[in-house]
Amino acid sequence: MEKRQEEAIAHIEREWEWRPVPAKRYFTVQETAELVGVPVFVIRSWEEEFAPFFRRRGRHRRFYLRQEVLVLRRICRLFLAEGADVPEVLLRLDDGARVAAASRVAVARWRTALRELQALLNGV
Fold it and tell me: Phi-psi category of 37—alpha, beta or left, where left has phi over 0 and alpha has psi -120 to 50?
């Protein structure tokens, strides 16, 4: 393991208590690294490794949404606290994405049903 990676892991183990993610829309790569508790190079590496979960914004600077910061924290915890490897992290993140997608589908169905019910009630 590289010395920088060992230092990153040691830093994260000391910083398990994460501060709350501020309620703002975008975070720079430096802000994201501070919120997750890892060096910037780790964030960039994870962004490449787990590309389906991140979208590039801007040409010269990296910006992350609040949700992406939370995904990065989850990746960090899976790697360090649970000792997961990359395929296992991908699988767990994908399961979470499926659950979120299923929730969105369920909400959309309920909204459609409510609109139909309102249309029926308005017609009476």
Answer: left
> How many structural domains is the chain composed of?
1
Over residues 58-89, the pLDDT tens digits come to: 677 788 888 888 888 888 888 877 788 888 88
User: Please, which contacts does 92-99 make with residues 24 or more away whose CB atoms are closer than 8 Å?
Assistant: 93/50, 93/53, 97/53
Domain span at 26: 3-123
**Max Cα–Cα distance, the chain, nearest Å:** 73
The pLDDT value recorded for residue 7 is 66
Q: Which two tokens stand for residue 70?
A: 């939370």
Contact assessment for residue 24 and residue 66, using Cβ atoms and an 8 Å cutoff: yes
Dump pLDDT digits (tens) for 34-60. Answer: 999 889 999 988 888 887 777 777 677
Distance CA 68, CA 50 (A): 11
Give the domain CATH number at 69.
1.10.1660.10
